[in-house]
Structure formats: structure tokens, C-alpha cells
Amino acid sequence: MSSSLKIQVPDAVVNPVIKIPLGHIIEGSLTEGFVMRVAREANLEEIKAGKFVAISGNEYTFFSMITNLTLQVAHPDILLYPPTERDHLLRDFLKKKSIYATAQVKPMIALTKQGNTIPVKTVPQHFAAVHEASSRDVAAIFGAETDSTRKYFNMGHPLDMDAPVCIDLEKLAERSTGVFGKSGTGKTFLTRLLLAGLIKKSVATTVIFDMHNEYGVQARQESDAKFVKGLKALFPSKVAIFSLDPQATRRRGAQPDVEVQISYDDIHVEDIMSLQTELNLHSTALEAAYLIYGKYKDQWLTALLEQGHDAKEFAQQLGAHPESIAALYRKLKRIEKLPFVVKKIPHRDSVIDRLMEYVQKDIHVVIEFGNQTTTFCYLLVANVITRRIHHEYVQKTEHYLGTQRAQDEPQKLMIVIEEAHKFLNPIAASQTIFGIIAREMRKYFVTLFVIDQRPSGIDPEVLSQIGTKIVAQLSDEKDIQAVLMGASNATTLRAVLGSLDTKKQALLVGHAITMPMVIETRTYDQTFYADMQDEIMARPVKEVIDDLF
To answer: Are 281 and 326 in contact (CB under 8 A)?
Structure first.
């Protein structure tokens, strides 16, 4: 190769001549992928499904994923008399040309000699060499945290490689995001990792509905029962804790920044609609709620809880059916028992107004539920607060579109919810605020960050709007089908998902990742804490909060 040619070709795409290839392409197609005959010198047991490899073509380097492995024989009669462990000479003789292995290789993206990534629209020549991708290859494809032009964040490394795979956080914030996996596969860990990246890089503000108190102060790892730092501990001046159970927060060694109280007037009929399944509410009961709202407006819930005990008389005032009023009263009576719900709050003390002020100042909010961990509480609070966020951001965006001034552009916001299928199932998604945000709010600078172990329970239309998916192990066929819906190479990725380990492995796919990639996830430990340190503000959080207000 001439010196002039070396200058033109980036290091990442120079065809390796020293490394022993894993094998060579012998057949295949653009749509089905290629078949690699594994080289005799290669260690077959080190070639795994999900492995990241590079096919060296004449004009392009085809970055690909191994999806399957097959043992082959040149003639079926060989299998009639297989050699024993003592037959070393026979085994060596057969390995030369009669027995071999092939790997199914799916090309995901091509890199030109100029260093540009393009979709795969052609195929390499017969017998093109296949090599393990290098660290430079990984950086060329996925970017690097040192890149000053983009906000990349290291999520882990490819299987059997020590090279960081980065996700583009700016692209991540453009559309909704999903973290999926069955119970015990580390969804919370993956979410905490990604949220730390968003906070560190100041890409978007987050409001996190922390049902099990795992993101704020500290959390317990399932694998070794050790405690790890929460986001508040990592970024003390960038994260505020809003607590529905302040005593529980204090028992865990933290002081809540704001104690959450919600008034009856904050709860609208729309907030109850997402509780329809949870409360087993009939549609006639919801119709009765709207009749109450038509007369009493924001005081509709107060009127129901004060007068609904006499359902017949109250129904006559409204022109409603007494049984519907009685059912609605019985179901919503439990709101009175929630310690964080009060009849009236002075407007100046509105916790929702306070939360919006934090968000406007780019302070991330973790809403802890303490011991109030029932699904009823979680759905109610998340709906009340998110509906207000929706209202505020629509107004902000309309104002920005009117002025077109950069200083009026709203800060991007991501709303983080667990048990997403309860908010976004086909019934709820068509009626509640979360369905509206999933479908429409990207243009209003708000996106969802959903966490769920049952993606098949989420409305397919909503699932199709999720731009980036981080998928841990799934075993249910319906969940796998749902999470890969709309993805190119879905058949290929289905096989890869089936090969994931239970812990510390995930498939990254979608808008914020250059090509689908299986990774060993980054470790959330002291080294990670140190990497976050350069972004931690030195001032105490109380000083920062006092300055805001």
C-alpha cells in the first residue's frame, strides 16, 4: 500500500493485514446476511452471538453482528463414525477440510474510506476477510466522549472487547426512550446509568417518578446486596428530591428538598381515567365524574367526597345515575386516606408550581414515594404532575414560536416512569396525558423515558414512537416481538436477544445509536463515580436552591 493511499484512508478502515481473520465470507445476500466460514485457527468458542466484527471489502468496511453459529461437515458419512477423543490424527485431518463451522453475519452499517458511515446497500466480494473490530473501529462508528461536537456517553463495551460504545445523548433526548427487560435483568441499573449521563452532559432535564426509591439517594444492588450512590449523591447541586413520604427519606439518610402535598383541586377527572383499570371503574362512573366537574369545576372531587355519601340526593342534583355516583364515591374515598393529599393548599405553596420552577432552572427532580408504593398512588401522582407539565410546556412552546428568540426556547424535558404499561396500555394511552405526550409532545420539547418488563402491554402505536430502546434479556415471545416492532433487522435482533445473559448485557437499538449493538454494560462503581466528579458543583445544594427562589 502506497504512502499516499495511507494518508487518504483513516486508521479505522485500513484493512488489517497482521491480525489473523476470524474467517471469510463464502455466501449470503444483502437482505439475509452473509455466511462466514470460521477459520481453522480461530477459537470457535470465543465467537459468540452478538459479537461485533468488521468485513474488509475493497471500497467499504462492513460493520456487522454475528447472529448464529452452525457446525458443518463436508459429507454426511463423516457423522456415522465420529472420532473419539483419542483419535487426534483423525481429528486434525478432518479439521483441514471436512469439518468446519460457519457463522451468520448481519451487516449493520458501512464505513467508506473517507470515514463516512452509510447504510449497507451492497455486498463484499467472495472470501472477504472478517476480523474482530478494533477500538478505532468502535470509536469511528459510535463516537467518543472526547468528541467536542457531540454529547456522547459511554454505555459499555462490545462483547469480548475493551472499547467504549457511546450513545448520542442529543439524539436520545429528541425522541422517547425505553428500557425493557424481564424482572431481575438490571433495568434500574441501566436507567440510572443513562440518567447520570443526561445529567452530566446537561442534555435534558428529567422528572423521575421513583416508585421504589432507587434513583435519588442510594440503592441496593440485587447481585451482591451492596449499596450504590443515587443521582442526588452523584450530583448534589443538580438533583432535588421531592418526597411524598419525608420521614422515609430521612430514615434513609437524606433530607428532602421539597415535601410533596397535592390538593383535591389538583386532581382532575383526566387523572382518574388512567386509574380506570386499577380501580375497576365502569365507564358510567367516569361519565358521572364529568357531570360533577361540569357543575363544580376544580372543586369536583371535594364535592364528591363531601356529598357522595348520599348518592341518591347528589345524583338528583346532577342528573346522574345514583349507582354510578355511589361507585365513584366508594372508589375515590381512598384518596382521603393518602397522607400527601390535602383538601386545600395556598397557591403560593403549590408543589407543582415549585417543581416547574426547578425544571426551568435545569435542576433534575426525583419524586420519591417512600412507603407510598401502591400502584394507585403512583398512577395518581404521576398523572397529576405530568398533566401540569404538559400544560406548561405547550404554553412555553407557543410563546417561543411566537417570539422565535433563543432565550425563550424551552429546556428539553424527559419524564421517567416505571411500570409504563399501566400508563400506556391500549385503553389508557388513548385517554391519558402519557399517551398524548408519547404521540405529540416531542414538538413541545417533552419526551418519555419508560421502564417496563412487559413491553407487550404497551399500546403498539406508542411503542412505535419510542426512538431508542435499551433491551435486557426478555423471554416472553410477545414481549420480544413488541420491543422489536418497527426495527430493521428485527429477525436478526430476535436471535441476538435470545442469547443475552441475565445480567450486565443489553441490546442498544434505535435513534441514538449508530447501529444495533450488544454491550457488556459499564460498571456502576467507584471508577464511574470518579468519572462523574468533574460535573459536580462544589456549592452546597441549599445555597443553590436558596438562590433560585
So the answer is: no
